[in-house]
Amino acid sequence: MTGTCVILDIGGVLEITPETGWVHRWEERLGLPYGTVRERMGDVWRAGGIGTVSEREVHEQVAARLGLDAPQVEAFMGDLWAEYLGTPNEEFIDYVRGLRGTCRLGILSNSFVGARERESAAYHFDELVEQIVYSHEIGVGKPDPRAFEAACAALHVRPQDCLFIDDVAVNIDAARAAGMQAHLFEDNVRTIARIAAHLDATP
What we know:
Blueprint lengths: L4 E4 L6 E2 L5 H9 L5 H14 L5 H12 L3 H16 L1 E2 L1 H10 L4 E6 L5 H9 L1 H4 L2 E4 H4 L6 H11 L6 E5 L2 H9 L3 E4 L3 H13 L3
Parallel strand pairs: 1-4, 1-6, 4-5, 6-7
Antiparallel strand pairs: 2-3
Helix pairs in contact: 2-3
């Protein structure tokens, strides 16, 4: 398995995803103490992140645990997805699009059940890279070493040939421990420079 490779995170890298405060607004609307949604829904969010529940089951649990009717559940989940999807990092996406054909390109994302359909529809990441490895589809997320192994396997590349880009430091450390090169995303300029250096270093 050979070939220079760049593997990207989505949220905070390809997507700009600031917190919107939607959870707190729902708690205020429902008269619930701050932190109630996280307390009641935490295990469901974790299950959705590794695909052990379906979207339908998530909706059912939101209704049951927060006492919401069907229209409220739809509105609640709409707010969840609005924050999750954020807005596209257009400058960086355009740069990555220009890399196609010069290296192997992939995505490794800690995700939530339903993410592939929504991100493909909104941003066409499935057309940007060769392979997208979602935690909810493989049953394990970063920083578990198995997530990095799955990404390399999907792209048929060696870890040492890969540069991994993420905005979370613990994931950067885990990627390096898995044998990859890695760069902590802080802004487009430095990240683009790091990718260019990675490609220039290729024999």
